[in-house]
Task: inverse folding
């Protein structure tokens, strides 16, 4: 065993230069990403610089190794243990799982998506919560880079506004536009490929609302 419990031998995913830099740090040296940091990163679409804390990244490597050994893939684990969704038997393994859905428009039917807390969030400043919205309905992306298309971006924006921003405003009776951010990783950055999902970041969200959103 090397590096505080990280197994020797092949790692469960390829580490990039930023990952290796993080692993060389301690949690005390690591800069927790603030709300202002996140706004800038997301507005500039520089999602590749979102990183986990050193201790969390080490634990994530260990967890991923064990989970792949038990379930074969992280995707299998998410489907079986977190989402409890069964893919269509006709799904093409090369393109990922497909599901029966009620509405072909993403986020149009609550039965077609599920909101969960991210089990392995990025290194965020206190008060910031990281949720994932998983959807059975595919979200259209650009083939050249895997980023969302303009119509998809508009769909997600509207969903996030009505689901998170407006609900915060209803409960707290004050504006909340600056307390909700979202992004969708390009294909190359996704740790769970094949199951469409959007990341939502919330600043100082009440626990009661988090429970409502996650059902």
Result:
């Amino acid at each position: 065993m090397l590096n505080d419990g990280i197994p020797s031998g092949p790692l469960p995913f390829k580490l990039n230069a930023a990952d290796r830099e993080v692993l060389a740090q301690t949690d005390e040296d690591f800069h927790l990403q603030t709300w202002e940091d996140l706004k800038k990163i997301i507005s500039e679409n520089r999602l590749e610089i979102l990183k986990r804390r050193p201790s969390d990244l080490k634990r994530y490597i260990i967890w991923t190794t064990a989970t792949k050994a038990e379930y074969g893939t992280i995707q299998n684990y998410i489907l079986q243990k977190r989402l409890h969704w069964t893919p269509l038997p006709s799904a093409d393994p090369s393109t990922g799982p497909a599901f029966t859905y009620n509405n072909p428009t993403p986020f149009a039917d609550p039965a077609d998506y599920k909101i969960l807390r991210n089990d392995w969030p990025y290194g965020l400043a206190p008060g910031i919560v990281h949720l994932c919205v998983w959807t059975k309905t595919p979200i259209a992306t650009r083939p050249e880079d895997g980023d969302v298309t303009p119509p998809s971006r508009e769909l997600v924006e509207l969903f996030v506004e009505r689901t998170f921003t407006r609900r915060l405003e209803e409960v707290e009776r004050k504006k909340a536009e600056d307390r909700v951010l979202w992004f969708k990783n390009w294909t190359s950055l996704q740790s769970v490929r094949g199951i469409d999902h959007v990341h939502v970041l919330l600043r100082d969200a009440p626990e009661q609302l988090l429970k409502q959103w996650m059902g």
User: Anything to note?
Assistant: Residues 5 and 39 are 34 Å apart (CA to CA). The first helix runs from residue 17 to 23. The chain has six helices and four strands.
